[in-house]
Write a structure and sequence with these properties.
The chain has 235 residues and is of the alpha/beta class. The chain is built from 8 helices and 7 strands. It has a single domain, classed as Vaccinia Virus protein VP39 (Rossmann fold, 3-Layer(aba) Sandwich), CATH 3.40.50.150.
């Protein structure tokens, strides 16, 4: 049932690209040792990190539940004063690696977040993140920014990180599909009638998601896409 939910999800294509690219990057750079998942939710990608010895997740108490995955709760939660201090509750050089999936756009001060990641990582440690480029506002009101690869480079290189890889995810058709599905979801939440109508018309929206996987290959784009995956290493 969980697998079926994933494949018919309005967010299937976005999750497909994220899963695929995390797997690809881990084949090239198999992260080992300890890992901190910042804003982990239910840790939907934990099972991909097969070489990690200790996987620690932290999030807010009211974290978003992703029903498309079998998940587990965080090991720890941000304290009540986190939004004032923006400091991670770990000592310097506490982890070998860190990850943050679709989190950076929700942070009020991304410079402070990257500084904290640099602080808690050991030298040579990796930080893997995914970040939206084009897409609707989500988890309001805590949605503060979008990034280009140039902004990401400046952000990380200014905090003692070496850029290993920045990958654009998707192309114009997958981006269109994601925007259409986000709009349909918004319409579905307006009323019971809107929800029923959205379910009735959903089939072509789902079909377009799968068609977009092919169209992205035929019409690739380096300027129009929906997401970034970035891997950096602490110097």
């Amino acid at each position: 049932m969980q697998n079926l939910r994933f494949y018919i999800s309005p967010y299937f294509i976005a999750k497909h690209y994220i899963l695929r690219d995390i797997e690809n990057i881990l084949e090239q750079y198999p992260l080992k040792g300890s890992l901190l998942d910042i804003g982990c939710g239910e840790k939907p990608y934990k099972n991909l990190f097969v070489n990690i010895d200790t996987y620690t997740g932290i999030d807010f108490n009211n974290y978003s539940i992703n029903k498309d995955y079998d998940g587990e709760a965080p090991e720890s939660y941000f304290s009540d004063d986190y939004l004032d201090t923006l400091s991670l509750p770990y000592g310097d050089a506490s982890f070998d690696n860190a990850v943050a999936f679709q989190v950076l756009e929700h942070h009020k001060n991304p410079t402070k977040m990257v500084s904290e990641v640099s602080r808690i990582l050991r030298p040579g440690g990796y930080f893997l993140a995914t970040v939206p480029f084009l897409g609707g506002i989500h988890e309001e009101p805590h949605d503060y920014q979008r990034f280009t690869k140039y902004g990401l480079k400046e952000l990380f290189e200014g905090h003692d990180f070496e850029i290993i890889a920045i990958k654009e995810q998707g192309a114009i058709f997958s981006t269109i599909s994601i925007l259409l599905n986000e709009h349909l979801n918004a319409c579905a939440s307006r009323s019971k009638f809107s929800y029923i109508l959205s379910v009735i018309v959903y089939a072509p929206f789902l079909a377009f998601q799968y068609l977009s996987l092919l169209l992205d290959k035929v019409f690739p784009s380096k300027r129009i896409f929906f997401n970034y995956l970035i891997l950096v290493r602490k110097k």
